[in-house]
């Protein structure tokens, strides 16, 4: 999915990964913050600032619990 689709899915509470992430890495949105699998909360503007190149425009996927 695209970056904008991933952000919308995260805002809706879904966990999303990217093809650059390892198998256990994911992110979601909670209370306006990007939250990663390790529990860290990131300011979205800063989080996406470092992920704005062409390779970050797509390649996202849903993460499903086992």
Describe the overall structure:
This protein has 66 residues and is an alpha+beta fold. It has one domain (3-62). Helix content is 23%, strand content 24%. The protein is built from two helices and five strands; from the N terminus they run H-E-E-E-E-H-E. It has helices at residues 3-11, 44-49, and strands at 16-18, 27-30, 33-36, 41-42, 60-62. A three-stranded antiparallel sheet has the order 2-3-4. It has a two-stranded antiparallel ribbon with strand order 1-5. The model has no long low-confidence stretch (mean pLDDT 95).
Quick rundown:
With 66 residues, this protein is of the alpha+beta class. Helix content is 23%, strand content 24%.
Features:
single chain; 66 residues; alpha+beta; two-stranded antiparallel ribbon; 23% helix; globular
Number of strands: 5
Sheet with most strands: strand arrangement: 2-3-4
Biggest beta sheet attributes? 3 strands, antiparallel
Radius of gyration: 11 Å
Q: Mean pLDDT, nearest integer?
A: 95
Please specify the SSE layout and strand pairing.
Elements: H1 3-11, E1 16-18, E2 27-30, E3 33-36, E4 41-42, H2 44-49, E5 60-62
Antiparallel strand pairs: 1-5, 2-3, 3-4
């Amino acid at each position: 999915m695209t970056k904008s689709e991933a952000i919308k899915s995260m805002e809706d509470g879904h966990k999303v990964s990217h093809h650059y992430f390892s198998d256990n890495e994911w992110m979601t949105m909670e209370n306006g913050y990007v939250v990663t699998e390790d529990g860290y909360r990131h300011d979205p503007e800063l989080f996406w600032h470092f992920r704005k190149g062409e390779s970050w425009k797509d390649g996202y996927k849903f993460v499903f619990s086992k």
